[in-house]
Amino acid sequence: PGIPTAAVSRLVTYLRILEELERAEVPTTSSGALAERAQVSAFQVRKDLAYFGRFGTRGMGYTVSVLKRELTRVLGLNRSWSVVIVGMGRLGQAIAHYPGASEYQFGYVGLFDVKAELIGTPVDVPAQREGVSGSGLAASAQPRQLNIQHIRDLTAFAQQQAAQGRAIDMGFLAVPPEHAQAAAQSMVEAGVKGILNFAPTLIQPAQDSAGHERGLQEISDEWRDVMVENVDFLVGMKRLAFYMLNPQLRDQDPE
Ligand code: NAD
C-alpha cells in the first residue's frame, strides 16, 4: 500500500509550519495546533504522520525541532539534489532565478534549451545550501552563474557530472507542450530519473518517433524507474472555479 500524494503534500505544509514555529522560537506543538494552521483536522495530521512512524509522545505533543528534523529526513530534504532545467524560456528563467529551491539542497547544475541565441548565455542561479546541522542548514555558498547549453549536449554533460560523483537527480521540464515529449525523452536518455513537468501535457514513456527507430523495448527499459510529476497551475485555477461555484462540495479533509 502506498501513501496518498495528498498526504505527502500535507507533510510539506507541516514542515513549513514547523519552520515558522521554530523561527518564532516555539519549542513544542500538537497535532491540534498543526491542524489549525494547515486547515485540516487533528485526526488528519496524526494519520499523515503515522504513515512515517511515531514522532510524538501520546498526550505530550511534538518537539518542534525534532519533528522538523524528522519530516526533513522523511521528505529527503536532508540530502542534496542536482537539478537541470530543460527549456530556458520565460518559465525556465523564472524558475532558475527563484531562490526558494535553494532553501533546501536543490541545486541547479545545468540549464538547457535549443534556441541558438540562448546557448552560451549566462544565467544567475541561487547558491545551493550545503550540509545539514542539527537545527538547520549550514551557511550557503556564493550565487553562481551557469551558461545555457544545447539539449543535445545533455547526455554528455550528465556523464561528466556522474564521473565527478554528482549525477543529475532531477530535471525541470519547461518547454512548450508540443516539444515536451521529445525533451523528456532526451532527459531520460541522459539518465535523469525524476521529471517535474510544467508543460500542460502528459508525458508518455516510449511514445515518440525516436522510440520506433531505437526499439520500444530499449526505450521502455530506460523509462522503467523514471518518475514524472506534473505541475499545472491551470488545474488549481479550474479546481478553484469549480469549488467557488459549488462551495457546499468542498471537502475539508481530503485524502
Ligand atoms: P517559452 O516559449 O517562453 O519557453 C520555452 C523554451 O523551451 C524556449 O526557449 C524553447 O527554445 C525551449 N525548447 C523547445 N524545445 C526544446 C527542447 N526539445 N529542449 C530544450 N528546450 C526546448 O515558454 P514558457 O512560457 O516558458 O512556457 C514553458 C512551458 O511551461 C510551456 O509548456 C507552458 O505551457 C508552461 N507554463 C508556462 C507558464 C508561464 O507562466 N510562462 C506557466 C505555467 C506553465
Count of DSSP-assigned helices: 10
**Hetero ligands:** nicotinamide-adenine-dinucleotide
Helix content: 40-55%
Shape: globular
Q: Please provide the ordered H/E string of secondary-structure elements.
A: HEHHEHEHEEEHEHEHHEH
Low-confidence residue ranges: 132-139
Structural class: alpha/beta
- Please identify which CATH superfamily of the largest domain we are dealing with: NAD(P)-binding Rossmann-like Domain
Widest beta sheet: strand line-up: 5-6-4-3-7-8-9
Please provide a brief summary of the model:
The protein is of the alpha/beta class.
SSE map:
Blueprint: H1 5-23, E1 28-29, H2 31-38, H3 42-50, E2 62-63, H4 64-74, E3 81-86, H5 90-97, E4 106-113, E5 122-125, E6 144-150, H6 154-163, E7 170-173, H7 177-189, E8 194-197, H8 209-214, H9 216-223, E9 227-230, H10 233-245
Parallel strand pairs: 3-4, 3-7, 4-6, 7-8, 8-9
Antiparallel strand pairs: 1-2, 5-6
Nicotinamide-adenine-dinucleotide is lined by residues 86-92, 112-115, 118, 151, 174-177, 179, 182-183, 198-200, 233.
Textual characterization of the structure:
The chain has two domains: 5-74, Winged helix-like DNA-binding domain superfamily/Winged helix DNA-binding domain (Arc Repressor Mutant, subunit A), CATH 1.10.10.10; 81-234, 3-Layer(aba) Sandwich (Rossmann fold), CATH 3.40.50.720. 28% of the residues are buried. α1 (5-23) runs antiparallel to α4 and α2 (31-38) crosses α3. The protein is an alpha/beta fold and 255 residues long. A seven-stranded mixed sheet has the order 5-6-4-3-7-8-9, with helices on both faces. It is built from ten helices and nine strands. The two termini are 14 Å apart. α5 (90-97) links the parallel β3 and β4. It is globular, with a radius of gyration of 21 Å. It is 41% helix and 16% strand. Residues 132-139 have low confidence and may be disordered. The structure holds nicotinamide-adenine-dinucleotide.
